[in-house]
Amino acid sequence: MSKFLGKIHYWLFDKIAWFESLEQEIIDWGKGKSDLSMLQWEKESIEKFGAPVGKVALEDVIDTSNIHGWLQDKINRAELRQAFIITKVIDSANGESYKEDLKNIYKSQGTEAGTKHKGEYALETPDEIFNVINNYILEGMPCDRVNEVSENTKDAFSWFATTCLHTQYWNQVQGNVSNFYALREEWTRAFVEALSDEYAYEVKDENGHRLNTIYRK
After folding, report:
1. Which contacts of 206-211 are long-range, i.e. CB under 8 A and separated by 24 or more positions?
2. Domain topology for 2-216
3. Percent of the chain with pLDDT strictly greater than 90
4. Quick check: pTM over 0.85?
5. pLDDT tens digits for range 56-72
6. Which of 2, 33, 41, 156 has the highest Cβ tally under 10 A?
7. What does the longest C-alpha to C-alpha distance in the chain come to?
């Protein structure tokens, strides 16, 4: 079965697995909070959007007659489950204070991933860091090509999304996609700082776009 699959499919499947691991960390954290109905929300998310793929081999579960469609479906479901659970947490009585807990979960995972790869790459220019980040960040299918580069020099690499692929999921669960971006920015900043001592990451609003920049310190 694996002969029908290419490296790009395994690469994308690994990104889905990363995203699902964040979902699980949030669920595990929430189960420890007596004022959150995390068990119920987890059940609801699966009933509404399907269960996570889990830790399985891609070739054992994928529909090889519809590889693209299968992967797209798993992205959709993972995005919806996570948006649903995060929105439930933020809309809870102590939701505002729990935003910091959620940020810390993302930071911790970003630091862990960045530390894992520290020293693995030359990272002579900031665009190389972007390429490493892209091994984790889930931004639709490769064919979506939503990221547009606005600067690429030896000292700075900037990009923005020409369209937001995530709003549709957050709208479907009556959530606010700005929460998604706030959390992902925490992850990315922590990842860059852990990956290299020479670079930093920032986000600015420019002409209605989130301009992401990795720059040399």
Report:
1. 206/160, 209/160, 209/161, 210/160, 210/161, 210/181, 211/150, 211/158, 211/159, 211/160
2. H-NOX domain (3.90.1520)
3. 92
4. yes
5. 999 999 999 999 999 99
6. 41
7. 51
